[in-house]
């Protein structure tokens, strides 16, 4: 009897080991797929966001006013436009990703051209925002000196807005097909050129902010030209068959999906913009904006080595943009698997992406805590700005950890087509809860920058919890059926016949 019991226990143990081994193998396979996309996507995201960081770094050497101007323009004005453009283009991540999963490549080029038309027209509509930057900032009760100089700088960087209109749709086109290594290489090369141009135009030639603006314009358009040549040079024989009149058809439906994506992404990005504006209304606005801008830039991963005499590897400056790489991997994996009719694989990929990104976020949080008195020196030599920024270290570490999860959840929404649903959640959590709480803590109760950042953290936490609940309760089989219907309706027989 004891022998039989022992054999049964051993059999159960063997079954458990086999199951654990199977799960481990499954996790390993999915992790390879995730990192195949996330790795180069992280490099690409780091390089693109570092374009802003490099501009801010050189502007900071010009003075506190110049650093505040670059922060206001890029985080408020250009940030507004950036959110609209990125959101409009994010419709491609859903459509192209699910079409690739279903094996229907023939409409990808048409989708890309439709997106170009929409984002290009949107750029024209948004041009006045740059032209009237100075009165807009004054209306928002920003510092007059900052608003005046920001008005000039914003006009100088208008070409960057049109660069966004071309660049973001191409990124989604390439990401949906997992062609991300080329993007990473091009963006890293563009970053190197951007550093060189800033050094020449800002430092050597002494053109100040005007030189920084010209450097940014040139760098962005170099990226665009390189990606465009790659797409139309025959590397995508199925997905790109040339320019087509079909791009002008079905624009109404495409605009609706693009607007839903834009609303979701903009609400996410503008939340940080609103925080910048709230801080700009505090006393001693220049120091406050400088401090919050350093924290904001620190929540985007930038690599910084030996900058201007500082012998430091800025690992702590990578942070959030690393998680943005997982936004890409999550949206691609989820959309591809749903389009292919594999709901279980889509659900498992969400788990792998969330846990991996959360662990990385935890590591970055620990690094920020350990270096909270040192990392502000990478941006400024002003002791009063360094002191103000160092006080925000604990709050910043918590935000970084949370932001290791949020971008992945955003990727789930894009891959599954939940843009409008997530937008409604963001409205309530960010704008109905976080910002009003920030106004109370920052102004009413006199907690200043720390109060505003704490409220931002609370709003982000609430939004994350709601999204996790939705994902936990999702029927992925139903999502796969919806993806099948979306592919059928967006790449139906009529359009397929015209493209064949």
Automatic annotation (TrEMBL):
GO terms for biological process: xenobiotic detoxification by transmembrane export across the plasma membrane. The chain crosses the membrane at residues 80-103, 115-137, 149-168, 180-203, 209-236, 257-279, 352-371, 392-416, 422-443, 455-476. The keyword Transmembrane helix applies. It is a multi-pass membrane protein. GO terms for molecular function: antiporter activity; xenobiotic transmembrane transporter activity. It holds the Pfam family MatE. Keywords: Membrane, Transmembrane, Transmembrane helix. GO terms for cellular component: membrane. It is found in: Membrane. It comes from the Eukaryota. InterPro entries: MATE_euk, MATE_fam. Belongs to the multi antimicrobial extrusion (MATE) (TC 2.A.66.1) family. This is Protein DETOXIFICATION. The lineage of its organism: Eukaryota, Viridiplantae, Streptophyta, Embryophyta, Tracheophyta.
């Amino acid at each position: 009897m004891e022998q039989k019991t022992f054999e049964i226990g051993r059999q159960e143990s063997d079954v458990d080991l086999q199951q654990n081994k199977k799960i481990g193998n499954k996790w390993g396979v999915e992790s390879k797929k995730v990192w195949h996309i996330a790795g180069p996507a992280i490099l690409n995201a780091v390089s693109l966001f570092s374009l802003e960081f490099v501009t801010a770094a050189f502007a900071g050497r010009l003075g506190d006013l110049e650093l505040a101007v670059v922060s206001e323009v890029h985080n408020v004005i250009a940030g507004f436009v950036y959110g609209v453009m990125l959101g409009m283009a994010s419709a491609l991540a859903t459509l192209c990703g699910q079409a690739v999963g279903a094996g229907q490549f023939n409409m990808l080029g048409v989708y890309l051209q439709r997106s170009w038309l929409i984002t290009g027209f949107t750029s024209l509509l948004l041009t006045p925002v740059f032209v009237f930057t100075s009165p807009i900032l004054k209306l928002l009760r920003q510092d007059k000196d900052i608003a005046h100089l920001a008005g000039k700088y914003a006009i100088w960087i208008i070409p960057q807005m049109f660069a966004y209109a071309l660049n973001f749709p191409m990124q989604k086109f390439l990401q949906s097909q997992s062609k991300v290594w080329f993007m990473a290489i091009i963006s890293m090369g563009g970053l190197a050129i951007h550093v060189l141009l800033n050094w020449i135009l800002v430092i050597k030639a002494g053109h100040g902010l005007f030189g920084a603006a010209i450097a940014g314009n040139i760098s962005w358009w170099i990226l665009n030209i390189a990606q465009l040549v790659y797409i139309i040079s025959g590397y995508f024989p199925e997905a790109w068959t040339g320019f087509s009149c079909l791009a002008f058809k079905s624009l109404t439906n495409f605009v609706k999906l693009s607007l839903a994506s834009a609303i979701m992404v903009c609400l996410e990005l503008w939340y940080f913009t609103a925080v910048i504006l709230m801080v700009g209304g505090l006393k001693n606005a220049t120091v406050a904006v400088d401090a919050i801008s350093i924290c904001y830039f620190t929540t985007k991963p930038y690599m910084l080595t030996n900058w201007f005499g500082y012998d430091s590897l800025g690992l702590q400056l990578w942070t959030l943009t690393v998680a943005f790489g997982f936004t890409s991997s999550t949206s691609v994996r989820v959309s591809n698997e749903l389009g292919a009719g594999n709901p279980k694989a889509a659900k498992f990929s969400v788990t792998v992406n969330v846990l991996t990104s959360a662990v990385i976020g935890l590591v970055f949080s620990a690094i920020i805590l350990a270096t909270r008195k040192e990392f502000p020196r990478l941006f400024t030599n002003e002791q009063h700005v360094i002191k103000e920024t160092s006080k925000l270290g604990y709050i910043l570490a918590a935000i970084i950890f949370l932001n290791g999860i949020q971008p992945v959840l955003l990727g789930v929404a894009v891959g599954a087509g939940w843009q409008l649903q997530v937008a409604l959640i963001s409205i309530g959590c960010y704008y109905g809860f976080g910002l009003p709480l920030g106004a109370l803590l920052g102004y009413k109760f006199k907690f200043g920058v720390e109060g505003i950042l704490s409220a931002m953290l609370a709003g982000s936490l609430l939004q994350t919890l709601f999204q996790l609940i939705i994902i936990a309760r999702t029927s992925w089989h139903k999502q796969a059926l919806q993806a099948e219907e979306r592919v059928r309706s967006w790449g139906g027989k009529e359009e397929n016949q015209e493209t064949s």
